[in-house]
Amino acid sequence: MINPQFEQYLETASMEFLENLSKYSQILSIHHSDADGITAGAIIKQMLNRLKVKYTQTSFNLEISWEKYLSSFNFDPSIPQAIIFSDVCPSGQILIDFLEQFPNIDIYNLDHHLFRPDPTRKMPENVYNCNPTQFGLHGLKEIVGSTLNYLFAKAVSEKNTNLAWLAALGMGGDTLQHINEYKSYNLLVIEEAIELEQVILHEGLCLFGGQNERIDKALAQSILPFVPEVEGDPKIAKTILESLEIIPKTKVKELTINEVNQIVARFTNPNLKGKFLTLPKKKGLLEYVFEHAQLISILGHDRPDIATNLLSATKATKEFKQKYLDYIQGIVKNLTTFVKMDKIESTHAIIVNLTGKIPIEMWSDTGSFASINQIYDPSKMLFIGGETKSEFKFSVRTTSQFIESHNNSGVNIVIKKIMDQIGGDGGGHGLAGGIRIPLELLQPLIEQIDSIINNL
C-alpha cells in the first residue's frame, strides 16, 4: 500500500523546498484545469499562502505546446525562481531544454501522469521530480494529482491536513471509481479526510451523476454506473420503480437497505451498491463529492477561475446546475448512442467512428465512461473518435484487465507503438490517452492494430 522510496523522496523534496524558499524571488504555480488539477492547485495555493511567499498561480489546459506556453512568462534567467507543476508537467526533454535557458529556476513536479524522461540526457539537480509513476505507483488508482499535491503540502506543514477534503474532491473527478476500489495513497487520504470529518462516508445506492437527485431522476442521470435499461429517461425509471413498489420521489440518500437491494437485483448490477462521500459544509449538488467534482471539470476547461471559486461556495447557482444537468444528460445520451453504434472489432481492439453521431467535444468523455462502465469488451482497447479537418482524432481507453493480460502495457505504450510504426502524435497514461493521425493512416491503423498489440 505504501512506497517507502516515494515517501522518502517526497519528504526530501518538501524539505529542500522550504530551505530554498528564501532565495526565490517568485514562485509560479501551474495546474491543470479539470477537477483534479483545480483542487491540486487550490492545495498549493493554500500552502503558499500559509508560507507567506510571493507567487503567481495559473491554469493550463494543454491546448497549446509547452514550449509556447512557457515562453509566454518572460522569465529572467539571472533571478532564482521556482515552478510548481500540479497535475500537469512537460516531458523530460522539454524541461531540460527549458532549464538550459533558465538554470536558476527550480522545478517541482507534482504531476501523476506517466513521466517521459529524456533518454539521452540526465535530469538537472534542480528538478525535484516527485512524479509517483517513477516509483512504481499507479498514477490513477493509487495516487491522483490532488492526492500527490496534498501529500507534498502536508510534508511541508502538518497544518495543511485541513486540505484533505480537496484531495478527496479531486479523486472523485479523476479516478472515476467507487470508493470501494480506491487503493494505496488515495485510500489513505480518503480515510484521513473521513477521520477528520471533512467528508462523510455513506453506504447505499451509488448512482454517480445523479446522487443528489430523487431516485427516478438519479437512475436516468447515472453515469457511474450507466444504466442502459433506463436510456436516460426518468419515465422509464419511474415505471420500473413503481413495479418494485418504491416511491420514485425518494431521495437516493433516503433509500432503505431493502429498497437498495431491490434496485440492485432488478438491474443485476452489483456496482449500483457501494460507498459514497458527501461534504458536510455544502448543500444540494455540491454536497456530493462526485457531482461536485464533475461540475468543477465542466466549468474548469473554459473558466478555471469560476471553477476554483466553486470550491468556497456552499451551493451551486441555478445557472451552474443547468450546465451540470446538460453535461450529464449529454453523457447518458451519448452512451445510449454508443451502445447501439456499429463498431470495427478486431482481436484486440474496438474502433468506433463517431463522426456526425456524437459532438466532438464529447468524444473523450464518452470514451472514458464507456470504458469505466465496460460497455465494450474489457479485454480490448477502445479507439473512439472521428474526423476533424485533415486528421482523425481518437480518444483511447482500456481497462486494468487489458493491461494485466498484455505485459502490463496500457494506452500510453500502445500509442507510442502506433506513432513509431504508423505515425501520428499523441500520449497518455495506462488507462487513457489520445492520438491524432492523418486521414490516410486510418486504414493502416485498422489493419495493423492487432499486430502492434500482439508485439507488446
Automatic annotation (TrEMBL):
Q: Which InterPro entries match?
A: DHH_sf (IPR038763), DHHA1_dom (IPR003156), SSDNA_exonuclease_RecJ (IPR051673)
Pfam families cross-referenced by the UniProt entry: DHHA1
Task: Describe the location of the DHHA1 domain by residue ranges.
Answer: 381-454
Q: Which Gene3D superfamilies match?
A: 3.90.1640.30
Q: What is this protein called?
A: DHHA1 domain-containing protein
This protein's species is Candidatus Lokiarchaeum ossiferum
